[in-house]
Amino acid sequence: MNIFSDIHNSNSIKNILVRAPNWIGDAVLCLPSIDALRSVYPSAEITVLAKPWVSPVFFNNPFVKRIIDYEASGRHNGIAGKRRLIQELKQYGFDAAVLFQNAFEAALISFLARIPVRIGYDKDFRGLLLTHPVRLDSDIKKTHQVFYYLNIVADLSKSRQPSAFSHHPKIYLTEEEKDWAKNFLNDQGIGSGIVAGMAPGASYGPAKRWMPDRFREVAKRFIHNYGAKIVLFGGKDDNGICNDLFNGIGREAILKGLNLAGEVALRKSIALISRCHLFITNDSGLMHIAASLGVPTVAIFGSTDPNLTGPIGDKAVIIKKDIECSPCFERECRYGHYNCFKMVAANDVYEASVRFIKEFANA
Predict the structure, then answer these.
(1) Are 17 and 98 in contact (CB under 8 A)?
(2) Which domain holds residue 352?
(3) CATH number for 333
(4) If 99 and its partner were Cys, which of 120, 252, 347, 357 is the partner (CB 3.0–4.6 Å)?
(5) Same structural domain for residues 32 and 179?
(6) Contact, 108 vs 83, CB < 8 A?
(7) What pLDDT is recorded for position 250?
(8) pLDDT tens, 211-265?
């Protein structure tokens, strides 16, 4: 059977390589596309190639056979490292490579690994390296990122549109991970009552960060009104922001909170977020993780567009003020005023969040 000519036959592809996006949020948003791939090719094994900081998103996923860490700063660094990666990929005998990561390099590596079917968006001068280049039209650019990835799979399925697939991302935790998170919070004295998670950072830049003093005000109100325990999440770069947030609360924060920014690995953060009764966050990867876990999520948007990258879930609420210059998608405010965030008051976020807390308190 000619794999290339029979790509739409569900039995034609048995071994698929997925090149995952490099950002945590994007990796979460491509999860429905992995589910969709499995529905299109039910007998295929799926391998995910991902940067090490992203790969935990795919752990324990029932549709993923294995994960290969792309260590671009380590064993896959430089020309020799790329050759090593290509040889590693050749050993698996992949039938197809599905490229959710848009870079030219992703197409080149799958081409040099001699993977016979290579599908991804026709951009960044890589069309000639793809056997199935997907046209990136203006309509796709206007859709939510989750459909941006599903559109690639829909091109493979031929008979289905992106909307025909489930678009809800789902992260899978093991029972051991859930037990660890429960025990960890118990050991920290946060095992009972309301736990409110917060992610006041955003690696993209200040134009995606609501002001820490307003996060602090919301935290203080939850502590005072509901005795909530506040747990702060983020990367190492967010640790300073989180410390400032707690320092402004004072002694109450020591008794009622925990700053985990940069202190626990991503997979453990995911398990701990799953224990939160509420998650308040900027537009970030942690926002998508919380929503995918079904945790009530209140997301604050400034320079970005929730229609493109908003959290997906039945318990997700978006806070955004419509002003003329937003969304601008800039890392820093070109005008220096950050009005898209300044117009979001602490009370806006508190009122949007408190209904979730009330639901838990009255349960």
Answers:
(1) yes
(2) 175-361
(3) 3.40.50.2000
(4) 120
(5) no
(6) no
(7) 72
(8) 999 999 999 999 999 999 999 999 998 888 898 888 878 776 666 789 999 999 9
